[in-house]
Specification:
- The structure holds 2 protein chains of 2 kinds.
- By secondary structure, chain A is mainly alpha-helical.
- Chain A has one domain (5-95): Helix Hairpins (Orthogonal Bundle), CATH 1.10.287.
- Chain A is built from 3 helices and no strands.
- In chain A, α1 (5-25) runs antiparallel to α2 and α2 runs antiparallel to α3.
- Chain B has 7 helices and no strands.
- Chain B has helices at residues 2-22, 26-46, 50-74, 89-110, 116-119, 130-138, 142-164.
- Classes of the chains: A mainly alpha, B mainly alpha.
- Chains A and B meet through α1, α2 and α3 of A and α1, α2, α3, α4 and α5 of B.
Chain lengths: 101, 168
């Protein structure tokens, strides 16, 4: 049997949905962050699949830029989480609701 | 051989991702996410993208996940306690919405209409090795590449400022 590109797309969809579950159900800010990373990686898998299928490397270049953005996002986001922890002594998102109206 | 590898890597990726989301201890969650990322690197290799696979392992497991573990160690290691065994309404809504998302993805992929994916492209498989990716990155995508360096610089400055911030 051969592996169809759609198998990769289904796998990517499943991984993305697991990431969505993590963001919507977990209350620890760092785990929410890791779930976002999982979603970014699911999209990367889609890009590499299409890049392979369409015989072009542009998709892989885009994966490269997604990684750059993810690295920048993680650096700033973790700095924010540490700052929130110093202020509130917690990384629970339910404790950080001062901007809630 | 390739189908076997595909199913091994994909099942490891899905199982580790589920454990990542469901585990109560954040440290274990981070370790399971690393497992998922390794499985994804294997899948990239199967998809003729060895350079992306290598960079993925170096950047994600070597830099990003180490940063995650570092921050987890800096902060409290309290295991998330669940007040009661019943699910909160937000959690139920979250699971239902994600299930709807899975079904939608499945429908899109299995819809029987001609698309570039199913049509396929003839020709030699283009392997994303260091030479081809580097050539493309420094010719066609030179400007985005430079912009990315500016983005990284601003991220460094932003995180340093946030870390040095004097909080009341």
């Amino acid at each position: 049997m051969t592996i169809q590109p759609s198998y990769y797309l289904v796998l990517s969809g499943i991984l993305f949905s697991i990431g969505v579950v993590g963001v919507l159900t977990r209350r620890n800010a760092i785990i929410i962050f890791m779930s976002i990373e999982l979603m970014l990686n699911a999209v990367n898998l889609t890009l590499v699949t299409f890049s392979n299928q369409l015989q072009t490397l542009d998709g892989q270049i885009l994966v490269f830029f997604v990684m750059v953005v993810a690295a920048a996002e993680v650096a700033v986001g973790l700095a924010l989480i540490v700052a929130i922890f110093r202020l509130k002594n917690s990384v629970h998102v339910d404790d950080v609701n001062i901007m809630k109206w | 051989m390739i189908p076997v590898l595909f199913f091994v890597f994909s099942s490891v990726a899905i199982a580790a991702a589920l454990l990542m989301v469901l585990h109560r201890n954040p440290i274990y969650s981070a370790l399971f996410l690393i497992m998922t990322l390794f499985a994804l690197a294997g899948l990239y290799t199967l998809l003729n993208a060895p350079f992306i696979a290598a960079v993925h392992v170096i950047v994600y497991t070597g830099a990003i996940m180490v940063l995650f573990l570092f921050v987890l160690m800096l902060l409290d290691l309290r295991v998330e306690t669940r007040a009661d065994k019943t699910f909160k309404p937000t959690q139920i809504v979250g699971f239902v919405l994600s299930l709807v998302l899975v079904v939608e993805f499945g429908l899109f992929v299995t819809l029987d209409k001609p698309s570039p994916v199913s049509a396929g492209v003839q020709g030699m498989a283009q392997v994303g090795d260091t030479v081809s990716i580097g050539t493309l990155l420094f010719t066609k995508y030179l400007f985005p590449f430079e912009i990315a360096s500016v983005l990284l610089l601003s991220a460094i400055i932003g995180s340093v400022i946030l870390a040095k911030l004097k909080l009341k």
